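Input/output pair, single chain:
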Amino acid sequence: MKKKDIKKLSETEILKNLENFKKDLFNLRFQKNNGQLKSPAKFKETRKNIARLKTIMKGKHA
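Output:
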């Protein structure tokens, strides 16, 4: 998710996306432990998306 796309979202949409990315990260951890993970780069991408969403949220509250 790009920064400009996140800025267009409402606060509730950002929270929903944040929750979805956290669930994805949780599932990726299980896949990694079970040896089923196909794309290790998904970890980095998901963590960055979570950070972007949190950063934008912090800016909207200020």
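The chain has a mean pLDDT of 91. The CA atoms of residues 24 and 46 lie 8 Å apart.
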